[in-house]
Queue: 4 jobs
Job 1
Amino acid sequence: MFSSGRRGARVTAVLLLALVLCVGGASMAFAQTDPYSNDKPIVKPSLITRDADPEPPSVDPAPPTVLPFTGGDVTAFLIVGLMAISAGTLIVHRTRHTGDRS
């Protein structure tokens, strides 16, 4: 099926790819361990005190606002929809014509 030269080149390429992936995985595994840092961090708790009777925050109610739905939005949706329909039509057209030639 394959000549010995092409098969040998393919086997060499696969072995080289496997070696690169193994070395890459090993380097990531070694990066997780830090041989120079054997000290664990020391965590000292701190006490947070609060006021006994805090004042509630004052909030001014804002009037409700709604963004307008403009003609530009409708045009954008229309263009995207037409592009999707065109792409689907083109894909179906090409697959039917390439299937007829076989």
Job 2
Amino acid sequence: MTGRPDMAIGAPEVARLLREFGQRTALRGGNPYRAKAYVRAADNILALNVPLEELIAHDRLRDIPGVGSDRRHCEASACGRYASDT
């Protein structure tokens, strides 16, 4: 992945990355509720009835349970950037 905004990825890859964020949060002893929220967000992204890109374009990521204020990870992943780039 080059980290370029024109290299957007799909919902399955975003879900995989969010799951990884959740696992890393749990492994480093972070907030267990946040770790579970990442996993819940990943599950809900995979179950979407509309394209993830459409939700991003309309600033509706908070409509996805588990995304909440940490939507920057989801946006960065979907746009082809890693969270460390944001």
Job 3
Amino acid sequence: MNPARTLPEYTEQPVQIEDETLSSLSLRYTLSLGITAAIPPGEYKFWTRAINIVQGGMEISDTEKDELMKYLPGMNPLFTA
């Protein structure tokens, strides 16, 4: 097991999921892409956070998108088109 993994029970680790700002930006960006649904990790506290984020509004500004893109270098997407 990799000691850096914060959630060892998951195959893929959520990206800095403990960072509430990043998780908010990530979820709101995902939902802004016109998808039908986004599923947070199966950890109860993250479901609650996702619901709170969505209830706060799903809009994301261009400035927030730019901030989110700073986290992307070096990340490998799970899915690509």
Job 4
Amino acid sequence: MTPDLADQACVGALNLAAEGRVSTRELARAVVDISQRKSRFDTSHPTLIWGQALDCSLASGLLDGWRCVVGLRESLQLCYREVEARLEANASR
């Protein structure tokens, strides 16, 4: 924890990613590619959320000018490997 945040109550999560827009389809394709699973997109339902845009100004302000240095794909790969390792560890218990 940074000294500036030591005495502050944290309310909710902070966006800690590269700012900009990412379509839902781009995100889903990246996850499918990283997982190396054969998946299909179900296009029979209406699309309600086309994508997301991130604003990391709150994190930057609270964390002394913090900025993202890891891209979306690399972040997804790191997260996927972490979750996969935890699942494997739990399965072997």
